[in-house]
């Protein structure tokens, strides 16, 4: 039977989950159900029904480094190798759709989920994601890039509205997804929880149809984040294929009723059902099972892959030089994370690792492998150094200082960073600082006079008050289950660190462009900073940073010798030399500066398109032998010179506008990071002339029209109304300037006087009703108590606090329907008894309706 021959009810049933992780199939049409599983850096195949927050038990799988760490490799080929291993494990665990990678832009360093995302830059994010997707899908498994789109905070994540101008959205927050879709063709994509300019992502036609399908050519399935669907009917109209997890049969009835009423075209229903069926049929797998996987060599091979990825992603931030440690060096290993490793974040990405390593044991293993014939690095002793939960304990510091001060200790190795409470789905960080007890420890260790080498464990940037006093800093990120052996190999010189930072490290949090309004505590998260995110802000506004975007040291030294534009204008050639006696790798980075800034010597543009001082447009990781010289080609492409010219007055939901290229002299700069660009060249994009036979004679570049500076969109560098934006001084942007950037007035509402179905439970703390206030305050107190007691966030409670009542109808497998949600909202608004009465009566009506729908689906 063909899909179109199924009843409307049967087709509607295919558009929502059958359980926490399974789709609904249809036997009559030969469409099997399929399995989805979290897996940005490891397959989390849960046992039983499971949950979506990483709390339930899951089958063992390789835990690879997180995306925020892998991005520091700047190596899409390495990401693809990791993806191949991920996809193999997903295949063998009978997982059809692996939910990852995450490639949201790191708008602010405090986002609790930044460790799952690649970069503050869309070119890095897109190219790294494309590599991982290609690797995953080489196994017949669908990758699922997420969270589409403009998802930047965990607070109120299910009840937040991202207010953003069209150009910033297209250039910064969507370009990474565009690259991933165009270059890797993912079979599935996941929408985000939030609204974008007042329209939920899963029912945003501008995103899902106009951009994703019509412009980028995506022909796969769009799945909601778990509980992220708002209206099933609106989603199907807009291009949302599947809502997860199981909402029961309420959505089925809503879709059927809409088709009968003529408010939903059956053709739209058919299109979405075909998208779901395509995944079911394309990814149907015959897994070998976890037992076979562990009995063979695959588990060991994948552990080695995880180690190589960790090795390629570590960033040497400082070196006295003291690294690599010389044979015979006696090391005092200090700090709790050296013995009890932290190598991944908390939440839905948490993996039940097949193996675990720690730095202390890795040192000892290396020492044992060296034997007695040659000098090796020896561990002189170990001290915990600090309390893992952050409690002050002078005794632990004294023990560490005593160890470091011994005559048989040459170097103190301190392993410090963020603890388990700091980085998690559902919870944003409150500070860029690491726990104070760790700062106190490092201060005490440096006072001994012994050189201190810091191994820094964190998925996001942190403040480094002791930067100037330590001898070396090796940033290992969240490095996966093989991170400890990778770290020791890097410290001892078996591996030459080659990572470069994929995000800027500010000196202090207050320097960050969005620090004054992040996270948004109300409904609207207004992206006041526009395109000035990360290095685009720091480099334009001239704000000093601890480490610039793209920064990374090495045991090798490199010289960038020459730059030449390709004769056909297709790119640039750069000559790079390894001046040292040590083989190593560097990341050649290409940045462009548009005519509106290239034409002036200062920071104020005279005319043309408003844009940051420089933007990354290409990169290449290059491995060179000692004293080797090589010429590296970085090609220009569709993304190099474009800007999005939004029509004045658009809000990001209509999408009026087009991609254009600005004519004039562009500065091409190449170097090892965003601040150090020793090589520059001028590339001229000419306007066409009558009879002109040159490259731009047809008035286009990469298919986009070339415009004069005077033909810039309403976001013009000649517009004095943009004020502080012209110099990137976004911290002092006024409401009037923000209105000029957005092209329409932006109004941030206050607290709701009456709570609705899409206001989070947390705001019930302001309710006039005693019961509602008690529920919200009790949940908040419980979360704080659990976090303080266990050292880990209470993810279930956080999820409930951030959850709007609407989500209850999407995550209870049919126990709650929309009428019951309306009753719950009455309780939230203080009408407790009326709400309870409605809740009880609606419950019984829902149960009866579910039975009738189930009988219809079973053809009883």
Automatic annotation (TrEMBL):
Family annotation (InterPro entries): Cellulose_deg_GH3, Fn3-like, GH, Glyco_hydro_3_AS, Glyco_hydro_3_C, Glyco_hydro_3_C_sf, Glyco_hydro_3_N, Glyco_hydro_3_N_sf
SMART domains reported in the protein's UniProt record: Fn3_like
Alphabetically ordered keywords of this record: Carbohydrate metabolism, Glycosidase, Hydrolase
Residues in Fibronectin type III-like domain copies: 586-674
Highest taxon of the lineage: Bacteria
Biological process, per Gene Ontology: carbohydrate metabolic process
Gene3D superfamilies, per database record: Glycoside hydrolase family 3 C-terminal domain, Glycoside hydrolase, family 3, N-terminal domain, Immunoglobulins
One Gene Ontology MF term: hydrolase activity, hydrolyzing O-glycosyl compounds
UniProt keyword Hydrolase, yes or no: yes
SUPFAM superfamilies the record matches: (Trans)glycosidases (SSF51445), Beta-D-glucan exohydrolase, C-terminal domain (SSF52279)
Family of this protein: Belongs to the glycosyl hydrolase 3 family.
PANTHER family: BETA-GLUCOSIDASE
Identification of the protein by name: Glycosyl hydrolase
Taxonomic placement: Bacteria, Bacillati, Actinomycetota, Actinomycetes, Bifidobacteriales
